[in-house]
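Recap quiz, item 2
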Amino acid sequence: MTVNGTAITRRVPARTHLIDFLREELGLTGSHAGCEHGVCGACTVRVDGRIVRGCLTLAVQADGRRVDTIEGLSDSGELAALQDAFHRRNAAQCGYCTPGMLIAAQDLVASHPGATREQIREHLSGNYCRCTGYQAIVDAIEDVLNEERKK
Ligand code: FES
Ligand code: FES
């Protein structure tokens, strides 16, 4: 597979989940393992441009595919506007949900730039945050969407 633009070849047990492969085999610990059964969204990564749950995806399912994690998306600058807005709006506290939240939010910014607050909440409904109460996260994403609309 290609991870953050780098070709990776490994032999792994068939039952290895993508999140464990990324974290333990490649040392990409920005993606978090929370519930590990598809509920919290902390493990969100992209495979071939689509967001997936790293805990519900097997590493072998990413064979031959392009995987993007929070590390690669941060380095490329793709998330810069959202990261800046999260910082400005105090939308991260412990930060455990933040990588998955940013990737899910960027998916919305790219696919639905006209999203309302309600639609932002709907899009993030698969990403849990135990700290912020979500208000600041929605504010941050709304800021970015408003900036996008001005362009
Ligand atoms: S760790 Fe994957 S959804 Fe919670
Ligand atoms: S900032 Fe702590 S879980 Fe979201």
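Helices lie at 18-25, 70-75, 80-88, 98-111, 117-123, 135-150.
The chain has a mean pLDDT of 97.
End of item.
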